[in-house]
Design a protein that fits this description.
It is a single chain. About 40% of the residues lie in helices and about 15% in strands. It has 16 helices and 13 strands. It has helices at about 25, 40-45, 60-75, 85-90, 100-115, 130-135, 145-160, 170-180, 190-215, 235-250, 255-260, 270-275, 320-325, 335-345, 375-395, 435-445, and strands at about 15-20, 80-85, 120-125, 165-170, 220-225, 230, 295-300, 300-305, 315, 355-360, 400-405, 425, 430-435. The strands form three sheets. An eight-stranded parallel barrel has the order 1-2-3-4-5-7-10-11, surrounded by four helices. The protein starts with 15 loop residues before the first strand and ends with a helix. The mean pLDDT is about 95. The chain binds beta-D-fucopyranose (FCB). The site of beta-D-fucopyranose has 12 residues, from loops.
């Protein structure tokens, strides 16, 4: 039920309402028209890393079906559409010469958005590094910054009609999961490697901003961060300190260098310890860039307590299951107050010009019954989170848009095709799309 409080128009008339998706999770067509493999194509070949051995080879076949899919976006009433560019489609050698067919694909996609009246929001990097660059060290190599600048330039020069950009998608996601925990591509588990990837990603996010500004002066430029309210399990000094340490990694690590504050420091000197391991850590000026907006992506809060056995961090998560709170199909806590708190927290930096929610959504165990998907839980989720967002706006946060994750069920990284986040259900055998009740709920809501 849409309460009288919650109306799309309450967010203002220029608000960007969109859905978001990414190249690796949706396009498929991994060896067509000159595209080379990405780290996700490679990683998915390893045994046991992705649920049911799923691969992104076909995904939603968005590469061929984008016209119909954009019609769905339009039919559901959205005015904006966020997607990412596949680096290995544009530069199959990672660097060097651009692939005309790859460029033509994104030009068609952008033109199609405009012809439908959808504003394209384009992410330069959503986790799918060309495998050829991984073979040379990928994000752990200092050369990545040169490769990334070249890639950003090629994109900026070829897609100048795009006026809304995001440089990176969740750098703390791909550095932590991909380089420290080994759960995502490229599957590395190395503290040293993680620290290098963090440093290089922090430089790349500012470099990307500078290049887009230089080539597309009228562009609205942002970058996205995952964020989670970190809640101490108790108010003992030990738990409070544990929460501060986790907060540093989950929320502060990439935004503070971008704002010109350098890497964050904490009372234990964790970052100092990192400095000693990574001599090239401090580049405060180069890591700074004045973004037009910050994209926040929120899925869950996290509750933590002190734990002496965990090296360096000395903290563990108290899982939602133990706390008996409402969760999604992935066990992620549903907590819209925490969403509001973390938005407030970022806004309080004072130096952020505008916030856009560039991803938010939930996976549930959806089923198609007689051509319908009754996903009431997802509708309730969006209602709760949008109410919280409206409170943020009323509190004075300057909000420019909200993008639901995601248009349609897709390749959810290590979860394979098991976690369904879409407003549209996809049958991965037939590619049949079925609009879920939540999709229709959005269509009605966007008219209010
Ligand atoms: C975010 C990712 C996005 C998607 C959602 C569920 O961290 O940016 O690609 O996987 O989580």
């Amino acid at each position: 039920m849409v309460t009288s409080e919650l109306k799309a128009s309450s967010f203002g008339k220029d608000f960007h309402w969109g859905v978001a998706l990414s190249a690796a999770q949706n396009e498929g067509a991994v060896s067509e028209d000159g595209r080379s493999p990405s780290i996700w194509d490679q990683f998915a070949r390893r045994k046991g890393v992705i649920k049911k051995g799923a691969r992104p080879t076909v995904a939603c076949d968005f590469y061929h079906r984008y016209r119909d899919d954009l019609l769905l976006v339009k039919a559901l009433g959205f005015n904006s559409f966020r997607f990412s560019i596949s680096w290995s489609r544009i530069l199959p050698d990672g660097s060097g010469k651009a692939n005309a067919e790859g460029i033509a694909f994104y030009q068609r996609l952008v033109d199609e958005c405009y012809s439908l009246g959808l504003t394209p929001f384009v992410t330069l990097y959503h986790w799918d590094l060309p495998q050829v660059l991984q073979a040379e060290g990928g994000w752990e190599s200092p050369l990545i910054n040169r490769w990334f600048r070249h890639y950003a330039k090629v994109c900026a020069k070829n897609f100048g009609s795009v006026k809304h950009w995001l440089v990176l998608n969740e750098p703390s996601g791909f550095t932590t999961l991909g380089h420290m925990l080994g759960m995502h591509a490229p599957g590395r588990r190395s503290l040293e490697g993680f620290l290098k990837s963090v440093h290089h990603a922090a430089l790349a996010q500012a470099d990307g901003g500078r290049i887009l500004r230089q080539y597309i002066p009228d562009a609205v430029i942002g970058t996205s961060f995952s964020c989670s309210e970190v809640i101490p399990f108790s108010d003992t000094p030990a738990d409070l300190a544990a929460a501060r340490r986790i907060d540093l990694f989950m929320n502060r690590l990439f935004v503070e260098p971008l704002l010109g504050k350098g890497f964050p420091e904490d009372d234990r000197g964790i970052v100092d310890k990192m400095n000693r391991k990574n001599k090239s850590w401090k580049f405060a000026e180069q890591m700074q860039f004045d973004m037009d907006f910050i994209g926040l992506q929120n899925y869950f809060p996290i509750v933590v307590k002190h734990h002496s056995f965990i090296p360096l961090i000395q903290a563990v998560e108290v899982k939602p299951k133990e706390r008996k709170v409402p969760v999604t199909a992935l066990g992620w806590e549903i907590n819209a107050d925490a969403f509001q708190h973390i938005i407030r927290r970022f806004w309080k930096y004072g130096a952020i010009k505008e916030i856009m929610i560039t991803e938010n959504g939930a996976a549930f165990k959806d089923q198609v019954l007689q051509g319908k998907v009754h996903d009431q839980e997802r509708i309730s989720y969006f209602q709760l989170y949008l109410q919280a967002l409206l409170k943020s706006k009323r509190e004075g946060v300057k909000l420019g848009g909200y993008f639901a994750w995601t248009l349609m069920d897709n390749f959810e990284w290590a979860e394979g095709y098991e976690a369904r986040f879409g407003l549209v259900h996809v049958d991965f055998k037939t590619q049949l799309r079925t609009v879920k009740d939540s999709g229709f709920w959005w269509r009605d809501f966007l008219k209010t």
